[in-house]
């Protein structure tokens, strides 16, 4: 073969390769463009849905104010109603448009009916997993949810879950903190927290009586996402509450207790009997903690309950609910931390509210601390979860004026919520959670 013929064949082959690469590039660009348009259309539709609900009429609502120490404060001499939502899982893309609308309807219906003073979302508002939602833009689902909550006009605050800021999603925790903490959201109480404490969103919301005594302290904590060796979360290796967060919680409780005693001394300086009564009642503030990933003690408590034939023990008292995750799973952090042990050493009544496991919904007392799973919203993340319904709902927390608290789970598929939802009459299986959990993984 002559050199000229060889060069000619090489040129032809090069042209073929070039055309193939060019064609692939064009296909990729067209695909990206199509998905971008579809995502914009689906997000616009759900933003319009989120904006369509009526503002909640609640003339008795307690309006939060910023205190001198920077904490948000609800000041009232009545019980405060707190609604916990968790794992809303709005995808914000064209693949998840229908499920996103169902989640919006569910949230709007339950908040509108319950008329809470405060809504706390314990993680995973967003689910920017591309092969399920159709996008990796985690700001879009956050905007949809924020639009809904500001439309309803109820004070609300999120804590971050593992899906809210996936490593491959567009926006980091710092950037999402700027959104949630920005001036554009009229009713969001999110604060990023101290730079000296790990995570974003570590903050305190106080409930005070009209004398200025703190009856309840709500601690919002970032339980982080995945461990460094599992950045994508493929191995389910979850992070935990860090030591400096625990120290911040401990110091904050001590500071509030000291402030309460000073307030009581001042207000009741001329009434020794009432002062002593108030010191006994409020000298040890109730602390309620809200974060996403459950502590190891959730697993320890449930295992002890099961080992005793699904009966209470000296350490465990079940109030309601069960473990519904297949294989009776409780997805805890990879490493244990000392938060629970620290809480045990602190005075006052204590409770923890988490999410993360969408089919677990129990609430129990364990060694002096109330451990509660929020009822999830999720229509998207678990395969087939849109069609099962026993777990879907909200958790109603009653923060009482005497510093005590109670809570109950409330299922979404009740007439009082369904009458408001206009959700095309969902058809769901109301599964027996105990039997469901016994299925093989």
Which features would summarize this protein structure in a list?
11 helices; single chain; 441 residues; alpha/beta; five-stranded mixed beta sheet; nine-stranded mixed beta sheet
What's the β-strand tally?
A: 14
Question: What average pLDDT do the residues reach?
Answer: 90
Pick out the low-confidence regions. Answer: none
Calculate Rg over CA atoms. Answer: 25 Å
Q: State the shape.
A: globular
Helix-strand category: alpha/beta
Q: Percent of residues in beta strands?
A: 15-25%
- How far is the first residue's CA from the last residue's CA? 64 Å
Q: Identify the strand order in the major beta sheet.
A: 1-2-6-7-8-10-12-11-9
Q: What is the succession of H and E elements?
A: HEEEHEHHEHEEHHEHEHEEEEEHH
Number of helices: 11
Please summarize the sheet with the most strands. Answer: 9 strands, mixed
Helix content: 25-40%
Task: Walk me through the structure.
- With 441 residues, the chain is α/β, with parallel strands linked by helices.
- It has 11 helices and 14 strands.
- The strands form 2 sheets. Strands 1-2-6-7-8-10-12-11-9 form a 9-stranded mixed β-sheet, covered by helices on one side. The protein has a 5-stranded mixed β-sheet with strand order 5-4-3-13-14, with helices on one face.
- α1 runs parallel beside α2 (97-114), α1 (3-50) runs parallel beside α4 (139-152) and α2 (97-114) packs across α10 (415-421).
- It is globular, with a radius of gyration of 25 Å.
- The model has no long low-confidence stretch (mean pLDDT 90).
């Amino acid at each position: 073969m002559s050199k000229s013929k060889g060069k000619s064949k090489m040129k032809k082959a090069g042209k073929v390769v070039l055309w193939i690469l060019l064609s692939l590039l064009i296909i990729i660009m067209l695909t990206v463009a199509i998905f971008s348009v579809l995502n914009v259309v689906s997000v616009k539709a759900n933003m319009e849905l989120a904006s369509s609900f009526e503002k909640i009429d609640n003339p008795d609502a307690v309006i939060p104010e910023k205190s001198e120490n920077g904490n948000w404060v609800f000041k009232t001499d009545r019980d405060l109603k707190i609604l916990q939502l968790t794992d809303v899982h709005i995808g914000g893309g064209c693949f998840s448009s229908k499920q996103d609308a169902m989640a919006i309807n569910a949230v709007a219906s339950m908040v509108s009916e319950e008329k809470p003073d405060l809504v706390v979302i314990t993680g995973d508002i967003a689910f920017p997993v591309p092969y399920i939602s159709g996008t990796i833009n985690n700001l879009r689902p956050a905007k949809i949810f924020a639009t809904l909550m500001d439309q309803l006009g109820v004070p609300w605050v999120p804590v971050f879950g593992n899906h809210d800021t996936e490593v491959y999603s567009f926006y980091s925790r710092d950037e999402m903190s700027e959104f949630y903490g920005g001036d554009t959201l009229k009713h969001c109480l999110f604060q990023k927290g101290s730079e000296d404490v790990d995570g974003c969103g570590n903050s305190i919301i106080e409930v005070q009586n009209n004398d200025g005594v703190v009856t309840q302290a709500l601690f919002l904590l970032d339980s982080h996402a995945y461990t460094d060796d599992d950045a994508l979360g493929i191995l389910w290796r979850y992070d935990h509450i860090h030591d400096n967060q625990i120290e911040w919680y401990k110091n904050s409780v001590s500071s509030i207790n000291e402030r309460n005693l000073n307030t009581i001394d001042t207000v009741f300086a001329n009434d020794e009997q009432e002062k002593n009564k108030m010191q006994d009642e409020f000298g040890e503030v109730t602390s309620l903690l809200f974060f996403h990933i459950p502590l190891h003690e959730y697993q320890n408590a449930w295992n002890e309950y099961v080992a005793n034939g699904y009966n209470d023990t000296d350490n465990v008292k079940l109030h309601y609910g069960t473990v519904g995750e297949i294989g009776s799973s409780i997805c805890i952090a990879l490493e244990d931390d000392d938060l629970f042990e620290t809480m045990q050493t602190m005075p006052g009544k204590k409770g923890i509210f988490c999410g993360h496991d969408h089919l677990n919904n129990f609430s129990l007392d364990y060694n002096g601390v109330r451990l509660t799973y929020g009822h999830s919203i999720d229509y998207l993340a678990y395969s087939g979860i849109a069609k099962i319904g026993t777990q879907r709902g909200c958790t109603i927390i009653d923060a009482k004026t005497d510093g005590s608290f109670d809570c109950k789970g409330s299922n979404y598929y009740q007439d009082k919520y369904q009458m408001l939802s206009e959700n095309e009459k969902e058809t769901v299986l109301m599964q027996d959670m105990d039997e469901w959990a016994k299925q093989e993984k």
